[in-house]
Amino acid sequence: MNIPSELKYTKDHEWIKIDGDIATVGITDFAQSELGDIVYVEVETVGEELEREEVFGTVEAVKTVSDLFLPLTGEIAEFNETLEGDPELVNSDPYGEGWMVKIKMTDVSQIDDLLSADSYKELIGA
Q1: What residues contact residue 31 under an 8 Å CB cut-off, 6+ apart?
Q2: What is the layout of strands, in order, in the sheet containing 8-9?
Q3: Exposure of 103 by Cβ count < 10 A (0-12 exposed, 13-18 middle, 19+ buried)?
Q4: So what CATH class is 11-107?
Q5: Could you tell me if 104 and 47 are in contact, meaning their C-beta atoms sit under 8 angstroms apart?
Q6: How far is CA 11 from CA 20, 53, 76, 85, 107, in A?
Q7: Secondary structure of residue 44 in the 3-state scheme
Q8: Mean pLDDT of 99-108
Q9: Residue 63 pLDDT more than 90?
Q10: Largest alpha-carbon pair distance within the chain?
């Protein structure tokens, strides 16, 4: 199970990479393996300001559809449009080409509420 130590995590199995006031968000290796083959990623909230833990999109796998929850309050600045034609990148490269959205954070203090890699490993029993 790949859990990069430089990233932050949520209990909803999302990873967050912080770069200034921009946070890149995707789902973890654990989450994509639990979901199975991902066939569709939908994000229709680009340009919208959302609160932490609001649903910003959905990910559809062969077996199920799951909501995606925003880990930090902010504006959805960008959606990874590559996923429209190649959603399986979430399976093959969840921490790289399979990223989902970039958020312009409005409350950077919320970063302190995210899980470290070690805390996330404990959560999933890795």
Answers
A1: 13, 14, 94
A2: 8-9, 14-19, 22-27, 101-105, 74-79, 49-50
A3: buried
A4: mainly beta
A5: no
A6: 23, 11, 20, 28, 19
A7: coil
A8: 97
A9: no
A10: 37
Classified as helix, coil or strand, 17 is strand
Predicted confidence band at 50 (pLDDT cuts at 50, 70, 90)?
very high
Domains of the chain by residue range: 11-107
Secondary structure of 48-114 in HEC code, one letter for each residue: CEECCCCEEEEEEECCCEEEEECCCCEEEEEECCHHHHCCCHHHHCCCCCCCCEEEEECCHHHHHHC
- In angstroms, the CA 64 to CA 38 distance is 9
* 10: pLDDT strictly greater than 90: yes
